[in-house]
Amino acid sequence: MFVNLNAHSGSRLRALGELGELSRARVIPSEFKYSKGTEIYGEAEPADYVYQVVDGAVRIYKLLSDGRRQIGAFHLVGDIFGLENRAVHRFTAEAIVDTTVRLMRRSSLENVAERDAFVALDLLTMTTSNLQHAEDHMLLLARKTSLERVVTFLLEMDRRLTAANVIALPMCRRDIADYLGLTLETVSRALSHLRGMGILGFLGRTQREIVLLDRARLAELDL
Amino acid sequence: MFVNLNAHSGSRLRALGELGELSRARVIPSEFKYSKGTEIYGEAEPADYVYQVVDGAVRIYKLLSDGRRQIGAFHLVGDIFGLENRAVHRFTAEAIVDTTVRLMRRSSLENVAERDAFVALDLLTMTTSNLQHAEDHMLLLARKTSLERVVTFLLEMDRRLTAANVIALPMCRRDIADYLGLTLETVSRALSHLRGMGILGFLGRTQREIVLLDRARLAELDL
DNA sequence: CGGTGGGTTGAGGTATTTCAAGGCTCGTGG
DNA sequence: CCACGAGCCTTGAAATACCTCAACCCACCG
């Protein structure tokens, strides 16, 4: 059987363990801080490092030539990102808030992976996890309505970062919109609509803390 | 460095070579035929086999509970598909036309991959290739106009199956629409529009043979 | 305190979908 | 051999979901 780091939220934390172990033998992963809004790496730049979020949050995105932006994923605490097996990055990565990452050289990882099939399979598992996310997201982008997209997004964030019943989003409405293939106004309207339905509420000065009043009804809206 | 089966169209053929070699030692890949429209495997079914298209074409798709469909990819001659590293398939696969596939047991592949890091890296390369396609497709689905989507689709098909300047599409308009997140009418209108611009023409009784009159101008429309 | 960076809400515009009709090709059966 | 229906494609007209543009609010900060 394939080594199973176990699907989603779980996998990344365990994968961290794995990466940590690898590195123990060969490299000491170093930490680095990026302040809000700064670029960690750019699309098409050489992919020399692999990163793990220690604290904060990261968005990775692609741009069309005229500036339209598509956020491919958000990386939260524990997530590993920037792992490519070609020489260059396929996305730009930016810190959404002040963020600390742990990083290790790609080449070290490659050296180990060439010798140890299980390590290579771990990399495969991580890549598959990303692939599965992308596949699910394609379905969302191609076929879901704006309300359904926002619902799916909230459930994803709930699963990945909720403390109790409050989802403390690190990203702004525009980021959410660019992740979901919508405009920020449409996202805002969908959230207001869900609030109007009594499914969620907002908290805090900023509207980024979302209270899940009725997770069951929210889940019903997710197809 | 990672073993490089070399990115897209090329990779799959070479990967075939690799798979062939693996199997020579352990299993004899057998062939199987599926007639037009029949299911090869279903979403969430156990993933016991890995397939390669010998002749014909395959679509893989997901459905929402109410029947909305999203085609994640088309697999053409030479392509390997059905490779999962979890136990179940994440898509349904169907033959678009009468199709011959070569198949091998997943378990054989796994056994080899656990012993040979290079084989595991080959699997990683194939998975990464799928991931890259999915990432590009997300951008298309999230941010491109209907015309841009159709243009990108035509260029993809041109790259993957053109003989001379004629693209002989195996799939119907509805399949294209479900791949691009549009309706079949919108796809048809976009194609008519491109014909009106003198960029392409139709051939044959059916409208599935597309003549590329001006590839350069078509490529200009792809952002 | 004024400015800036979010966020919400409204009104109007538009790209795409939906609904509907019609054409062409092919296979089948009278 | 022709008629007929099924499948697929195109095209038009109307409906609509989402976008665009604009105003406004609020919190934060120099």
Q: What overall form of chain A do the CA principal axes indicate?
A: elongated
From the N-terminal CA to the C-terminal CA of chain A, the straight-line distance is 31 Å
CATH class call of the largest domain in chain A:
Mainly Beta
Number of domains of chain A: 2
Order of adjacent strands in the largest pleated sheet of chain A: 1-8-3-6
What would you report as the Rg of chain A, rounded to the nearest angstrom?
Answer: 18 Å
In CATH, what is the homologous superfamily of the largest domain in chain A?
Jelly Rolls
Assembly state of the chains shown = homodimer
CATH-assigned fold name of the largest domain in chain A: Jelly Rolls
Report the CATH architecture of the largest domain in chain A: Sandwich
Relative strand content of chain A: 15-25%
Order of helices and strands of chain A: HEEEEEEEEHHHEHHEEH
- DSSP summary: helix tally of chain A: 7
Bin the helical content of chain A. Answer: 40-55%
Mean pLDDT of chain A: 88
Largest sheet of chain A: 4 strands, antiparallel
Question: In terms of per-residue confidence, which ranges of chain A show pLDDT below 50 for 5 or more consecutive residues?
Answer: 1-16
Biggest interface and which pair forms it? A-B, 48 and 48 residues
